[in-house]
Input
Amino acid sequence: MDPQPDREFAHRPVMADEIVALFAPVPAGWLIDATLGGAGHATLLLDAHPQLKVLGLDQDPDALLAADSRLARFGDRAKTVRTRFDSLGSVVATAIPADEPVVGALFDLGVSSPQLDRAERGFSYRLDAPLDMRMNPAQSLSAATVVNDYSEAALVKVLRDNGDEKFAGRIAKAIVAARPVETTGALAELVRNAIPAPARRRGGHPAKRTFQAIRIEVNDELGVLPVALNAALDALCIGGRIAVLSYHSGEDRIVKQVLRDAETGGCTCPTNFPCVCGAVQRVRLLSRGGRTPSAAELVVNPRAESARLRSAECIELLERGER
Output
């Protein structure tokens, strides 16, 4: 075992100042860090806000090892659980005493820098390694399965739905023709050759969207996200806040819709008419539209460029009452 795992899972928290400021007004209680990673945001929040405790969730054992090391100095103000975040509701019910409020929930979606930078995890188009991309190494579905076993039509759907890939048909056809595709390097080269030359010179690495799409498929990221977001909203006390960092248009659409539904209570009444359907507004949005990183942050952390931050504050509980 690495004696200093936190150094091996170093990660620069995205929009850290904005996240710390968002949770400054919340009352004393627990914040659920649903995507704990190496605990970058969690340690900043615990240092800045003495009224907070953190329950951190992550399915990556390497991340949890690093997080536990970093969080040790906070004692019983921090707990961690190895789980995927769609189990948030059940974890909160068992890990947090019923008389202690949940005052915050934080989601930092996507893949972390340490996962990208470790070749053996198979996430990166820049580092050659066996295809993997599993955030939970114990699960059966991997990138190798998606690339080598999915039909051409299924691959096209994955690339279009998860990656907004304009050349999904060409890429899927090239992948099927080249099977078996065993490494990230081989897949990246296939994608590069399948895309027209003029398009390769725009928008960064030509394989970026394909790798993103396959990673999202492997980890069912878009499928579990609304479940986790709604569970987090259900757990919040009045005055509690939720903040979500997304890095992909599909993620951001889901976050926007879930928060919009909570803001309107699912109201079905015509716009500009009084509500008569009985909908109850559960949150108020803390900003209209997604906030983006500052120019100064992008200089030191270019990977934050696609980040969008959405947030809301709980103003009404469901009929089931507080936890």
Observations:
- Residues 5-114+221-314 form a domain with the Rossmann fold fold (CATH 3.40.50.150).
- The mean pLDDT is 90.
- The longest helix spans residues 249-264.
- The chain is about 45% helix and 15% strand.
